[in-house]
Specification:
The protein is built from 4 helices and 23 strands. The chain has about 525 residues and is α+β, with helices and mostly antiparallel strands. The chain is elongated, with a radius of gyration of 71 Å.
């Protein structure tokens, strides 16, 4: 039994050991074979695709992603809460300008129009009544003002006449006083002269009397002749007569003085009377002028009624204007219940059905213009200086196997703060309606053209750090050539260095050869360096 159990243990162990040995021998053989193949591959030329360096015209090309947009989008919305009565178009339906697309319930709007018409009629009636009252009041007040102003002018004229007459009377009285004073002066001068003549006559009389007495004495003494006595007595009689005559003149002169003095006194009295009368007349005239002036001011003050009526008229006219505005607004609301297309286009969204109750501002339908559209793209800031209005570009739309042409129409004056790029719009005609707003578009924009003496495919240039290299095939081996790159587009890039037109270069998009490694061109036709 023990020998049999031992046999059962040894046999499996021997089998496992044989299996392990066989597996090890197989693995060693495979590794040897793999190393042999690796050595063969290492020594065999690398199979590569190649291209030929050649001159090329390289145009900078921007590939931009954008959206097709309509230039005119009209969102028909309710301006007030209302019930939708009818919706006369669906998505995709063409519309023409003025076509009614949505109708809302107009009962409230019609009621508002009737109410506004009633308020306007009432406002106009109040204005007409106020204008009639104002006209009557204005005529009466203005007539009274003219009458009182005329009375004031008349009393002022009378006062002026009184003052002029007073001045004349005063001048006359003053002249009479002056004349009386002059006459008194003449009379007094005559009195003085008469008194002087009387004194002379009296002196002559005394002298004659003395002579006559002396002659009487001489005659009595016998020294004088009778004739001398008679002559002396005659001379005395003459002087006596002269004295009487002088006395009469003095009396007459004194009477003239008294008369002149009386006349002067009378003239002065008359002047005083005239002055008093003039003052009284002028005071009375001034009082009449003041009274007339007060009356005129009172009637003029009544013109404030006209201003009050004018203010009232202005307020009523403003009320009429306000009522007219309310009527126009109500009529506009009445037209707002019919939402119409503003331009030719197509319905792109319908958001309500008949029977719906909508709130103010709710968009019920969207209409977009489709005859021509915009392709709106974001352009890097550095590319904008090379863009000019009317510049052509090509674009494609996902799902449409056609290339479309568009022309640059607008470039924004400012960059988008978030993307730091410039918004640009390209205009594209859409007469058959193939293009639809909201579609995704890829736009290709060619810019400055450069004539490159040597250009290679973009896949032939390997960039490492600040170096660019090209692997040129020389005598069946890859030679690493450091180059400088210039203008490029999606296909080719300009290079300068140890590369000449006609040189074959390795396309390094899949595998990169080592410098000096043997290479073999693929059976596929080499790519030429064409833009």
């Amino acid at each position: 039994m023990k020998s049999k159990a031992l046999l059962y243990t040894i046999v499996p162990l021997v089998a496992i050991g044989g299996l392990v040995g066989w597996r090890y021998a197989t693995k060693v053989g495979e590794e040897s074979k793999l190393k042999t193949e690796q050595k063969a591959r290492a020594s065999a030329p690398m199979l590569v695709q190649t291209a030929t360096a050649a001159p090329a015209t390289i145009e900078d090309e921007l590939e931009l992603v954008g959206t097709i947009e309509s230039p005119y989008v009209s969102k028909l919305a309710a301006k007030s809460a209302a019930r939708v009565v009818s919706v006369d178009a669906r998505e995709g339906d063409p519309v023409r300008p003025g076509q009614v697309l949505v109708r809302l319930d107009d009962s409230d709007a019609r009621g508002a129009v009737l109410s506004a018409q009633s308020q306007l009629a009432e406002a106009k009636s109040r204005l007409a009544q106020a204008q009639i009252v104002q006209a009557s009041t204005t005529v009466g007040v203005n007539a009274q003002v003219r009458k009182d102003n005329a009375g004031l002018a008349s009393t002022r004229a009378d006062a002026d006449q009184v003052k002029a007459s007073a001045a004349s009377q005063l001048a006359t009285s003053q002249a009479a006083v002056s004349d009386a004073e002059a006459k008194l002066g003449v009379a007094e001068a005559q009195e003085t002269s008469a008194k002087a003549d009387l004194a002379t006559a009296q002196a002559n009389q005394q002298n004659a009397d003395q002579k006559a007495r002396r002659m009487d004495d001489l005659y009595k003494q016998g020294f004088a002749a009778p004739q001398d006595v008679d002559d002396a007595r005659t001379a005395l009689s003459v002087q006596n007569a002269n004295v009487k005559a002088a006395q009469s003149k003095v009396a007459a002169a004194q009477a003239s003085v008294r008369s002149a003095q009386a006349t002067l006194n009378s003239a002065k009295s008359q002047l005083t009377i005239t002055n008093n009368k003039i003052k009284s007349d002028i005071a009375a005239a001034n009082a009449r002028v003041e009274q007339a002036h007060a009356t005129a001011e009172s009637s003029t003050a009544n013109t404030s009624q006209i201003k009050a009526y004018s203010s009232n008229i202005a307020a009523l006219q403003a009320a009429v204007s306000a009522a007219e505005g309310q009527l126009r607004q109500a009529q506009a609301h009445l037209t707002d219940v019919s939402l119409s297309a503003q331009f030719e286009g197509a319905v792109t969204q319908r958001a309500a059905d008949p029977g719906s109750v909508v709130n103010p501002g709710t968009v019920l339908m969207t209409v977009q213009y489709l005859k021509w559209l915009y392709v709106t793209v974001q352009v890097p800031t550095g590319a904008v200086p090379g863009m000019v209005a009317g510049q052509e570009a090509e674009f494609t739309v996902e799902g449409i196997d056609t290339k479309f042409k568009a022309k640059l129409a607008q470039v924004s004056a400012a960059a988008d703060p978030s993307s730091r790029q410039i918004l640009a719009r390209f205009k594209v005609e859409n007469p058959d309606g193939v293009l639809r707003p909201g579609s995704f578009a890829r736009l290709h924009l060619k810019q400055n053209a450069v004539e490159a003496p040597v250009a290679v495919p973009v896949d032939a240039v390997e960039h490492s750090g600040d170096k660019s290299v090209v692997y040129k095939i020389v005598d069946g081996k890859a030679k690493t050539v450091v180059v400088k790159t210039g203008a490029e587009n999606r296909q080719v890039v300009q290079v300068t260095g140890d590369i000449q037109p006609g040189d074959k270069v390795v396309l390094v998009s899949v595998r990169t050869p080592r410098d000096g490694q043997a290479v073999k061109e693929d059976d596929k036709k080499p790519k030429a360096a064409k833009p």
